[in-house]
Amino acid sequence: MTTRRRSARSTVVGLALTGVLGLALAGCAGGETLATPDAGASATSDASATSETAATAEHLSSDELTALFDTLQFPPGEYATSAELLSSIYPGLTVSDPSCLAPFGAGWESAATADDAAAEMATSNDRSMTAVVVSSADPEQAQTLFADAEEALATCADGSQSFELSGLPIDLQLETIPATVTDTDESVSWRATGEVAGAPFTLVGITAVHEGTAIALVGWDPETSADYVPTATQMFIDGF
C-alpha cells in the first residue's frame, strides 16, 4: 500500500448510468523569446514550467460535472448542500463526532470555493445511493477530502462515537473492505452494518480520488448496494 498523506480532519459539517465527458486540462503555455537563454535561465524556465504543471490537475467544470450527474441518472440541482442531501435519505441522523460523516461527502461543497472548482451532489434516480463530487484544478483539495474520509473510517470504527437516527441510538459496526474500482489515484471501500430500534441495515460506500476530483458514493439498500455502489463509482471515475 502506498503511503497516503494525512490531513487534519475536516471540521466542516453537513448533513449510475452511462457516458464519458471531456476533461478540462488546466495548464500553462510558455511564450517565446528572441534572445537565446543561457543554461541557467533555461533550467530555471524548465523548473518553473514543471512546477506549474504539477500544481494543476485534470478536473471538470461546473457544467461538465452537472452533465455527468445527469447522464449517470443522479439528477443534479435538487440539493443546495450535502446536509440537505443526507437528510433526505437519513432524516434525523446525528453523530457525536460530525467528522465521522466525511465518507458521505458531508461538507465537501465548502471546498469548492475557487473559480476553478465545482461541487455537485445528488441521489440516484431510485434513491438507493447518494453521490457527492468535488472537482478542482488544485489536486491538494481532492487529496485532502480523501484523507479526511479515510481518517474518519479509521477513527470512527472503535465505537466511541454515538450515532442516532431521529433520536434513536444506532448500533453500528464499521469496516473497510477491498476496493473494486479502477483508474483511481486512491480509493477506499467500506461497509457499515447495524440496527436501529431492532431494524437491521447495511450501508456500502466508496471514497475515491482521481487527479483533482474526489467522489464519495454511499448506498443504503442492502439488496443492491454491494453491486450498485462499485458500478456507479466506476462510471463516475470513467467520466472524470
Explain the layout of strands and helices.
Blueprint: H1 39-54, H2 62-71, H3 82-89, E1 93-95, E2 117-123, E3 129-136, H4 139-155, E4 163-165, E5 168-177, E6 186-196, E7 199-210, E8 213-219, H5 225-239
Antiparallel strand pairs: 1-4, 2-3, 3-8, 4-5, 5-6, 6-7, 7-8
Structure description:
The protein is α+β, with helices and mostly antiparallel strands. It has five helices and eight strands, in the order αααβββαβββββα. The chain has an eight-stranded antiparallel sheet, sandwiched between helices. The two termini are 24 Å apart. Residues 1-54 have low confidence and may be disordered.
Report the β-strand fraction as a percent range. Answer: 25-35%
Cα Rg: 20 Å
- Order the strands across the largest sheet as they lie in space: 1-4-5-6-7-8-3-2
Mean pLDDT over all positions: 80
The helix/strand order is HHHEEEHEEEEEH
How many angstroms does the end-to-end distance come to? 24 Å
Helical fraction: 25-40%
**What kind of sheet is the major sheet?**
8 strands, antiparallel
What does the overall shape look like?
globular
Structural class: alpha+beta
Number of strands: 8
The total of helices stands at 5
Residue windows where pLDDT falls under 50 for at least 5 positions: 1-54
